[in-house]
Design brief:
Protein name: Peroxidase
Number of strands: 2
Keywords: Calcium, Disulfide bond, Heme, Hydrogen peroxide, Iron, Metal-binding, Oxidoreductase, Peroxidase, Secreted, Signal
Shape: globular
Number of domains: 2
CATH architecture of the largest domain: Orthogonal Bundle
Domain Plant heme peroxidase family profile: 22-324
Radius of gyration: 20 Å
Helix content: 40-55%
CATH class of the largest domain: Mainly Alpha
Binding site for Ca(2+) 1: 64, 67, 69, 71, 73, 85
Number of helices: 13
Largest sheet: 2 strands, antiparallel
Strand content: under 5%
Order of helices and strands: HHHHHHHEHHEHHHH
Strand order of the largest sheet: 1-2
Distance between the termini: 54 Å
Structural class: mainly alpha
EC number: 1.11.1.7
Length: 328
C-alpha cells in the first residue's frame, strides 16, 4: 500500500517540470557517499554553539528559493561590476552564522569529494537538519540541484514579503509561484523560531497612527514588554525580539497560538489571523500540532523544488559565494 508521504511525492512530481524530475534522494550515493555525515556533523556543531543558526538558515533558504528558485543565488557576494541578491536591503539582516555553516559544510565536502556537491543542495540539506534539530518535522530533500549562474540585486524586490506587506499582497506573491494559501500559512510557521529586529515592527509600537500610537491588535502586556525591549532601537539596530516569545527555540505550533493571543510580532503575522482566506488555517494549526507539522513538511518539500537548475542551467561552484567564472 502506498504511504501518504509517498503518494504526495508522486503527485508532486507529476506537477513539476521534467528537469526537476532529475533529482533523486540518492543523487550523491556513489559520487559523495559521506555527504549526509558531513552535513550532519557540520550542522550539529553549529547548532550546539549557536542554536539561533537554525532559524537563520531556514530564513536564508526561504530567501534563496523565493527569488528565482532554490539555486544558492543568495550566497553570491557582490563584485565591483554586479550587485548580488545578498546586498538587497531585505537580505542585509540575514545572519552570518547561516552563511558560515554553508561555507563550513562546503569546505569539508570539497576535501572529501571535490567539485561534486552543489551549494544549493548543501543549503537544502542543512535547512532540513536544522529544522529537525529544533523539533520540527523530518522531510524529504531531493538532490541534484545546480548552482545558479547569476545573482542580481534587482531580482529581489517583490519576491520576498516584508514585515508590513499586506496579506492580499503576500497571497498574490505565493500564488504567482504556484503555492496555495494553505501552503503559505504553513510556511509562515517558520516564524516559530528565530527573531526579528525591532526596526521591523517599531512603527506598530510607537507610530501606528496619530490617535493610536500602538497597534491595538497587540495584547497590551505584550506591547508594553516590546516597548521596553525596543526603546532604544533607533540607536541600536541590533535590538530584536523573538518571533515566538513562549517557545522561541522550539519548532512547534506555538506561533499560531500566539497569533490568537494578540502576540503576532510582525504586521504580516497578525494579518494571517485577520484575513478571511487565512484565519481558518491559523485556527487549525493552533489547535493541531500534527496538522501543522505535516503541512509544513509538504510545503517546504514543494518549496525546495522551486525553480531548481539542472544540467547546463547551472554549475557546481567551487566556493559558494562566487561563480566559477568571474562575471562582469
Amino acid at each position: 500500500m502506498v504511504s501518504p508521504s509517498s503518494l504526495f511525492l508522486i503527485l508532486l512530481f507529476l506537477s513539476i517540470p521534467f528537469s526537476e524530475c532529475n533529482l533523486t534522494t540518492d543523487y550523491y550515493k556513489n559520487s559523495c557517499p559521506q555527504l549526509e555525515n558531513i552535513i550532519r556533523e557540520t550542522v550539529t556543531s553549529k547548532y550546539i554553539s549557536v542554536p539561533a543558526a537554525a532559524a537563520g538558515t531556514l530564513r536564508l533558504f526561504f530567501h534563496d528559493c523565493m527569488v528565482g528558485g532554490c539555486d544558492a543565488s543568495v550566497l553570491i557576494s557582490s563584485n565591483p561590476f554586479t550587485k548580488a541578491e545578498r546586498d538587497a536591503d531585505i537580505n542585509l539582516a540575514l545572519p552570518g552564522d547561516a552563511f558560515d555553516v554553508i561555507v563550513r559544510a562546503k569546505t569539508a565536502l570539497e576535501l572529501s569529494c571535490p567539485g561534486i556537491v552543489s551549494c544549493a543542495d548543501i543549503l537544502a540539506l542543512a535547512t532540513r537538519n536544522f529544522v529537525s534539530m529544533a523539533g520540527g518535522p523530518v522531510y524529504t530533500v531531493m538532490l541534484g540541484r545546480k548552482d545558479s549562474l547569476e545573482s542580481n540585486i534587482s531580482s529581489v524586490e517583490g519576491n520576498i514579503p516584508r514585515a508590513n506587506t499586506t496579506m492580499d499582497e503576500i497571497i498574490r506573491m505565493f500564488e504567482s509561484k504556484n503555492f496555495t494559501v494553505g501552503e503559505m500559512v504553513a510556511l509562515s510557521g517558520a516564524h516559530t523560531i528565530g527573531f526579528s529586529h525591532c526596526k521591523e515592527f517599531a512603527y506598530r509600537l510607537f507610530g501606528y497612527s496619530r490617535s493610536t500610537p500602538t497597534d491595538p491588535s497587540y495584547h497590551p502586556k505584550f506591547s508594553a514588554a516590546l516597548k521596553t525591549l525596543c526603546a532604544n532601537y533607533k540607536n541600536d539596530s541590533d535590538m530584536a525580539a523573538f518571533n515566538d516569545p513562549m517557545t522561541p527555540s522550539k519548532f512547534d505550533n506555538m506561533y499560531y497560538q500566539n497569533l490568537k493571543r494578540g502576540m503576532g510580532l510582525l504586521e504580516s503575522d497578525n494579518g494571517l489571523l485577520r484575513h478571511p482566506r487565512t484565519n481558518h488555517f491559523v485556527d487549525l494549526y493552533a489547535f493541531n500540532q500534527t496538522a501543522f507539522s505535516n503541512d509544513f513538511a509538504r510545503a517546504i518539500e514543494k518549496l525546495s523544488l522551486s525553480g531548481i537548475k539542472t544540467g547546463n542551467q547551472g554549475e557546481v561552484r567551487r566556493k559558494c559565494d562566487a561563480f566559477n567564472t568571474f562575471q562582469t
